[in-house]
Amino acid sequence: MIHQMNRPAIAHIYPEHLRHNYRLLKQHAGKADIMAIVKANAYGHGIELVAPVLFDEGCRLFGVTDAAEGRQLRLLLKTEKAEITLLSGIFDRQDARMAIDKHLTPAITEPVQVELLHMENFRGSVWLKVDTGMNRLGTSDAKALTRQCQKAGIKVRGIMSHLACADMPEHLLNKQQANAFTILRREVTPNLPASLLNSAGMVSMPEYCLDVVRPGIALYGSEPVADQPLGLKPVMQLTGGVMQIRDIPAGAQVSYGATYTADSSMRIAVVSTGYADGLPRRLSNRGYAFFAGQKLDIVGRVCMDYTMLDVTDVEIKQGDTVEFWGTHIRANDVARSIDTISYTLFTGIGARVQRIAEYSG
Ligand SMILES: Cc1ncc(COP(=O)(O)O)c(C=O)c1O
User: Which of 137, 262, 323, 360 has its CA 20 to 30 A from that of 118?
Assistant: First the structure.
């Protein structure tokens, strides 16, 4: 019998950890509803593995980026009971038609979006997305946009804004944005649901949970505020398999550019995970992997398909599995070591990496 073995670069996804995180966030949200942010393929975790679990947990509000992601999610969930918000709104008439066809809820920021929806005779609801100081996407004239919606027969379902510095609880901008949002709500949409907080906001400004909170990263298990951990569990574990073990003499060099030179004779493991799988090249000569209770240094440059580890004096063999992030090495720690955030690690997982749901552990 031929035993088919896939290349072992795997993102193991733990649904039980996702459930745990959702329940924990639900407690923190109090009376507010949770809009689970599942954009960008559920932050790289695989929307098909994540969204049904959240729906099963009772989540009925989901946030994605655009109409294409919204359509994909609607087809996946196979129910109209989930409300799917498009956080970037719509871009053209085709998006407007998709929003009608798949009952999607765009978050709008520009008059042209209302025009596009009106042209296609959209009869659904929209969120108003307002800017309160981040100066990213959001209208600065919520009143005019509301009036335009009314004229076009489009229902405004609520008002939302986004915090720039929620992961820094002491930052002055948090309070300024919250105050600006409070005033806007009162003036423009006094009776409509309001939503301000992402994951970090739920930790740093819980008094602003309001009607809907929009956690993303916390669902996937990354603590959003470093020194106020919630007890989240990592949903993704990225692993690779040892393809070859080699002994090299003192003075031998490893990988592209020969940037690593062995001080003394040593043993190297060649692992089947590279930057095309989402292991950042910046971990070259800097990061590590976890195996059997120990951290193994990455030596030399991370390649497209391979990464080499120092396994001198380690009992490891061909076929063994090492972890790059997950339970033993937190994605936040990996990210911090190369001056990035876990969001980029997760969303950087390559298309060719298998995402496998794991029901134990
Ligand atoms: C508008 C909006 N709300 C909520 C989120 C979720 O943020 P986080 O993953 O930090 O919880 C995002 C993510 O970027 C967003 O753009």
Answer: 137
What stretch(es) of the chain map to CATH 3.20.20.10? 31-220
Cα separation, 361 vs 351, in Å, equals 25
* Alpha-carbon span 145 to 8, nearest angstrom: 51
Considering the candidates 78, 155, 256, 317, report the single residue annotated as catalytic: 256
Coarse DSSP helix, strand, coil percentages of the chain, rounded to the nearest 5 percent:
35, 25, 45
The pair phi, psi for residue 158, each rounded to 5°, is 175, 180
pLDDT at 126 over 60: yes
CATH class of 236-357: mainly beta
Provide the pLDDT confidence category of residue 360 given band limits of 50, 70 and 90: confident
- Model-wide pTM > 0.85: yes
- Quote the pLDDT of residue 361: 58
Give every CB contact of residue 97 below 8 A, 6+ residues apart in sequence: 120
Q: Which H or E run includes 182?
A: helix 172-188
Q: What is the mean pLDDT of residues 157-161?
A: 97
pLDDT in tens, 249-289: 999 999 999 999 999 999 999 999 999 999 999 999 999 99
- At 248 the three-state DSSP class reads strand
Segment holding 181, helix H or strand E: helix 172-188
Q: Is 270 helix (H, G, I), strand (E, B) or coil?
A: strand
Whose alpha carbon is nearest atom 6 of ligand 1? Answer: 216
Q: Where in the chain is the domain with CATH 2.40.37.10?
A: 236-357
Distance CA(281)–CA(43), nearest Å, equals 20
Q: Which CATH class is domain 31-220?
A: alpha beta
DSSP string spanning 14-72?
-HHHHHHHHHHHHHHHTTSEEEEE-HHHHHTT-HHHHHHHHHHTT--EEEESSHHHHHH
Q: Give the mean model confidence (pLDDT) for residues 132-159.
A: 96
